[in-house]
UniProtKB/TrEMBL annotation:
Its cofactor is Zn(2+). One of its GO terms (molecular function) is protein-exporting ATPase activity. This is Protein translocase subunit SecA. One of its GO terms (cellular component) is cell envelope Sec protein transport complex. InterPro entries: Helicase_ATP-bd, Helicase_C-like, P-loop_NTPase, SEC_C_motif, SecA, SecA_CS, SecA_DEAD, SecA_motor_DEAD. Part of the Sec protein translocase complex. Interacts with the SecYEG preprotein conducting channel. Has a central role in coupling the hydrolysis of ATP to the transfer of proteins into and across the cell membrane, serving as an ATP-driven molecular motor driving the stepwise translocation of polypeptide chains across the membrane. Residues 510-549 form a coiled coil. Residues 427-647 form the Helicase C-terminal domain. The gene is secA. One of its GO terms (biological process) is protein transport by the Sec complex. The lineage of its organism: Bacteria, Pseudomonadati, Acidobacteriota, Holophagae, Thermotomaculales. PANTHER family: CHLOROPLAST PROTEIN-TRANSPORTING ATPASE, SECA INNER MEMBRANE COMPONENT OF SEC PROTEIN SECRETION SYSTEM.
Length: 895
């Protein structure tokens, strides 16, 4: 009560923030008349002057944010003026406010259609003046390319360079894009480039530079929905795939409830004791839990999950003989991504496609930890407020709700609930039919590909023309979504399809004209610029006429065919309608058979509906049911938050190790490895002194024999125990350091080629670092899998994980250091005699191979000579070309 009184008097925190920033918006507005008088060239020159000033002051040690805050009104006013000229779009006051929020490193929640893409240009230009690169992160390659080209007109006009990172670029193209003032790309591409850079062997091959400022578009999708899935770069392991076929053949022979139990809420499927006994009998295995059968057991568990919890056309699809994951939030395909821990192989066995070998992790990072590397991070979305607490806790980002430019007039009707899915779909089709007849466009959101196709088949029977947009047909996603506002249009789409593309009432004339031009050009017709303009004008008139008719019909109607497990995704779907003050409406149709209701909803609801004796096809609207749905969604949201939080807790431990390791690896790439080698040398010598010399002052009490042995083992340096004892205790490490490093440098001089040896040092160091890091990641995966069992011993798994992972990391780093030192110190320049011997061996091997190829074109590398009479005479010249007789050359091997 006290809080509500305070809010009434002082306003909410959000209101107070917006009020405090409004004077900056007014300052930007006051500069507009001044910059309207500037020519394009003068605006560009002004920005370039600001760029020089910012970089100069920053070099002198001033804080970057302070410098940029001072010039913000001028830069924003220049960008607004340039956008007016180049894009025919002027930033509204609320868009300027959104730009301020983004520049200050916060999340701007702006409703769909409020022009977030244009808003980003303001802070992007301002922060690009620092010369450290600005990253704009989008949800797919299409949006990255579209926004870079569209907004690039503004950036280029101001003399700033723009790059795009998308799938399929080579390292050189990526490097050029990252070196631009502004770089657009997807979260996956940025994250994977970071991991790939930390696997490179040459500094010049690294593509990324500074992590200064990033603006994340659809920030809730990237930082929350996708945060449960870490980015992993993996390589094939040597394990056989046969065991997955064996496990897959077993599952159909087992019965649910008897041999195994499935818990959809917890997403688990486990064998019962009866099931284990049955599996052992079928497979002829005496004990599945014997350590020798642990891999087979793991494969059976994954096969069980694949058959019971993963559905085709919902969680994945089979395309071109390949299992491809479907993103549960966007409904998009994710080619190249694979489920980990053998699950993907289990799905391949289930679907009867070729099983690809299991992968081993080479590098990994979560989106949470990747984006926390940026000095300044901000984001924009239509729906972030429901997750404001998580944004603050994990990323330290405040969410600011920006008011709309025009009042929202969309009608959101209450949900209607049916008993069965069949009744629900029939009701949806009836509603679509009614709306279609009066010319009102309809967008139907589904949560899976399966449901979108089911609905499509029902509409076909009714003869209603419609478009289906799901992961199977995503190539022209943006074009289809853009036309969903045309008169009488019916579009069925997975909930998040086409996110980032505005649905324009009456249709999008630019896209219609583009499609028409492409058709004509494909038919072989050459069009002039004038003809292209005429086609655009024709569609513009048509779309304006249709827009009036659609507005009269009530605007875009959104139908949700099911509630998503996140309220935010439902709000995203609703937000496609009612943009920029347009009319519109939305309604969700639910059934008690929907996954959300079935798994998380109460069984009581179904019982009540049965007792009420409801007739088929009659919906129910009741507060208790609405509350139950909301409770179910909150339950799932909380569970998902816990999963993300736990993933972050574990990955934060890993992150400290990753940062330490990658910092060391970068040091090896950037600097001279010899400095690092000599640094390690000192550390090892100090450790050897502690181990074998210890505290005794008298040399006779030293373990000099073992010390001398270890010096030889590590540094290939011969020293007798007596010689060790002659060195004063306080000077031992210093003396030995001088001796072994001097021997090392003399060896390098003997080799003669300093540059070649430096390269060799780097390769040795990097190879050992990468090899041991790969093994460490595998050990960490095994540790993470097993650590949960510590809970049974009343121990906190996270604390145990921290302790054990630290011990593993320390051990790994010790092994890396030992290996690098031993290999580099033991390398010796080959003597002339050794070089001659190696050349002789190589020549002899070449002769044998050549002789084998003369004897038999298909002969193996190690050839055996037949005992019967050779076709070549023993006194004939040898075919190997040595000039000797056959019997004295290759023929001497005969038996």
């Amino acid at each position: 009560m006290f809080n509500s009184i305070v809010t009434k008097i002082f306003g909410t925190k959000n209101d107070r923030y917006i009020k405090s920033r409004w004077p900056i918006v007014e300052k930007v507005n006051s500069l507009e008349p001044e910059y309207e008088k500037y020519t394009d060239g003068e605006l560009k020159e002004k920005i370039q002057n600001f760029k020089e000033i910012v970089q100069q002051r920053y070099k002198e040690g001033e804080k970057l944010q302070k410098i940029l805050d001072e010039i913000l009104p001028d830069v924003f006013a220049i960008v607004r003026e340039t956008a007016k000229r180049k894009l025919n779009m002027r930033h509204f006051d609320v868009q300027v406010l959104g730009g301020i929020v983004l520049h200050e490193g916060k999340i701007a929640e702006m409703k769909t259609g409020e022009g977030k893409t244009l808003v980003a240009t303001l802070p992007v230009v301002l922060n690009a003046l620092a010369g450290r690169g600005v990253h704009v992160v989008t949800v797919n390659d299409y949006l990255a390319q579209r926004d870079a080209e569209w907004m690039g007109k503004v950036y280029n006009a101001l003399g700033l360079s723009v790059g795009v990172i998308k799938h399929g670029l080579d390292d050189q193209e990526r490097k050029e894009a990252y070196n631009c003032d502004i770089t657009y790309g997807t979260n996956n591409e940025f994250g994977f480039d970071y991991l790939r850079d930390n696997m490179k062997y040459y500094l010049e091959d690294c593509v990324q530079r500074d992590y200064y400022y990033a603006i994340v578009d659809e920030v809730d999708s990237i930082l929350i929905d996708e945060a449960r899935t870490p980015l992993i770069i993996s390589g094939p392991s040597e394990e056989s795939t046969e065991k997955y076929y064996v496990a897959n053949s077993l599952i159909p022979k087992l019965k649910e409830g008897e041999d195994y139990e499935v818990d959809e809420k917890e997403n688990t499927a486990v064998l019962t004791e009866k099931g284990i006994a049955k599996a052992e009998k079928i497979l002829g295995v005496p004990n599945l839990y014997d350590p020798s059968n642990i891999e087979l057991l793991h494969c059976i568990e994954q096969a069980l999950k694949a058959h019971t919890l993963f559905q085709k056309d919902v969680d994945y699809i089979v395309k071109d003989n390949e299992v491809i994951i479907v993103d549960e939030f966007t409904g998009r395909l994710m080619p190249g991504r694979r489920f980990s821990d053998g699950l993907h192989q289990a799905l391949e066995a289930k679907e009867g496609v070729k099983i690809q070998s299991e992968n081993q992790t080479l590098a990994t990072i979560t989106f949470q930890n990747y984006f926390r590397m940026y000095e300044k991070l901000s984001g924009m979305t239509g729906t972030a407020d429901t997750e404001a607490a998580e944004f603050k806790k994990i990323y330290d980002l405040d969410v600011i709700v920006i008011p709309t430019n025009k009042p929202m007039i969309r009608k959101d009707y209450p949900d209607v609930v049916y008993r069965t899915e069949r009744e629900k779909f029939n009701a949806i089709v009836k509603e679509i039919e009614r709306l279609h007849k009066k010319g009102q466009p309809v967008l139907v959101g589904t949560v899976s590909i399966e449901n979108s196709e089911k609905l499509s088949n029902l509409l076909k029977k009714k003869g209603i023309k419609h478009v289906v947009l799901n992961a199977k047909h995503h190539e022209k996603e943006a074009e289809i979504v853009a036309q969903a506002g045309r008169k009488g249009a019916v579009t069925i789409a997975t909930n998040m399809a086409g996110r980032g593309t505005d649905i324009v009432l009456g249709g999008n004339p630019e896209m219609l004209a583009k499609s028409e031009i492409e058709k004509l050009e494909a038919a072989g017709k050459e069009l002039t610029e004038e003809e292209k303009k005429e086609i655009y004008e024709k569609f513009k008139k048509q779309c304006e006429k249709e827009k009036q008719e659609v507005l009269e019909a009530g605007g875009l109607f959104i139908i949700g065919s099911e509630r998503h497990e996140s309220r935010r995704i439902d709000n995203q779907l609703r937000g496609r309608s009612g943009r920029q003050g347009d009319p519109g409406a939305s309604r969700f149709y639910l059934s008690l058979e929907d996954d959300l209701m079935r798994i998380f909803g109460s069984d009581k609801i179904s019982g009540i509906m049965q007792r009420l004796g409801m007739e088929e096809g009659v919906p129910i609207e009741h507060n208790m049911i609405s509350k139950s749905i909301e409770r179910a969604q909150k339950q799932v949201e909380n569970r998902n938050f816990e999963i993300r939080k736990q993933l972050l807790e574990y990955d934060s431990v890993m992150n400290q190790q990753r940062e330490t390791f990658y910092k060391l690896r970068r040091k090896v790439l950037e600097g001279t490895v010899r400095d690092y080698v000599f640094e390690l040398t000192k550390g090892i010598l100090e450790w050897l002194e502690d181990q074998y010399i210890g505290d005794p002052k008298h040399p006779n009490e030293w373990n000099a024999e073992e010390y001398a042995k270890k010096i030889k083992e590590y540094f290939a340096y011969d020293i007798s125990p007596d010689e060790v004892r002659k060195i004063p205790r306080e000077k031992l490490t210093e003396e030995m350091y001088e001796r072994v490093t001097k021997a090392y440098q003399e060896k390098v001089k003997k080799i003669g080629d300093e540059e070649m040896f430096k390269m060799h040092e780097r390769f040795v160091a990097l190879q050992f670092l990468d090899r041991h890091w790969k093994d460490h990641l595998l050990n960490m995966d095994h540790l993470k899998d097993a650590i949960g069992l510590r809970g049974y011993g009343q121990k906190d798994p996270i604390i145990e994980y921290k302790k054990e992972s630290f011990a593993l990391f320390e051990d790994m780093m010790s092994r890396v250091e030992d290996n690098i030192i031993k290999v580099l110190y033991w390398i010796q320049p080959a003597s002339e005699e050794q070089v001659r011997e190696e050349k002789r061996k190589a020549k002899a091997k070449q002769k044998r191979l050549l002789h084998a190829s003369v004897k038999d074109k298909e002969a193996p590398v190690v050839a055996t000579v037949k005992r019967d009479k050779p076709k070549i005479g023993r006194n004939d010249p040898c075919p190997c070309g040595s000039g000797k007789k056959y019997k004295k050359c290759c023929g001497r091997n005969e038996r």
